[in-house]
């Protein structure tokens, strides 16, 4: 269960310190929370669908770019499941451009880590397209993880 706030104890030599850890996820739109849950469960098509209406309604340019980027990542995963490497490469390239506009830690997501795993997976899909590799490791799908 996610706690809206908690206290984490950090040891600093002999002097313990306390810091406040805040989980902002509860304050995010329901569609985004559903997207994260579905994506992390591997239900990429459903995740894509869950976020699409929110993306279309969003007016903030950074948030809109972020939503569109993660929707494209989810869609790339669907293409990978179907064996469409061109679709994987195309969507991950577009998603990287969208997510490049987002600051690190945006909506509590490790944006840099996500973009790195996207880049590695895109290169693997390109290797399949060029014949250098025979298959794309589906276990290497980009993870949308906490910052």
SSE blueprint:
Blueprint: E1 5-12, E2 15-22, H1 30-41, H2 44-57, H3 61-81, H4 85-99, H5 111-130
Helix pairs in contact: 1-2, 2-3, 3-4, 4-5
Could you characterize what this model shows?
It is a single chain. The chain has one domain (29-140): Orthogonal Bundle (Hyaluronidase domain-like), CATH 1.10.3450.10. The longest helix has 21 residues, at 61-81. The chain is built from five helices and two strands, in the order ββααααα. A hairpin with a 2-residue loop joins strand 1 and strand 2. It has helices at 30-41, 44-57, 61-81, 85-99, 111-130; strands spanning 5-12, 15-22. Helix 1 packs antiparallel against helix 2 (44-57) and helix 4 (85-99) runs antiparallel to helix 5 (111-130).
Overall residue-averaged pLDDT value? 85
Domain count: the total is 1
CATH topology: Hyaluronidase domain-like
Q: Which architecture does the CATH hierarchy give at level 2? A: Orthogonal Bundle
**Low-confidence segments, ≥5 residues, pLDDT <50?**
1-22
| H-E string | EEHHHHH
Task: Looking at this protein, list some descriptive labels.
Hyaluronidase domain-like, 147 residues, mainly alpha, two-stranded antiparallel sheet, disordered N terminus
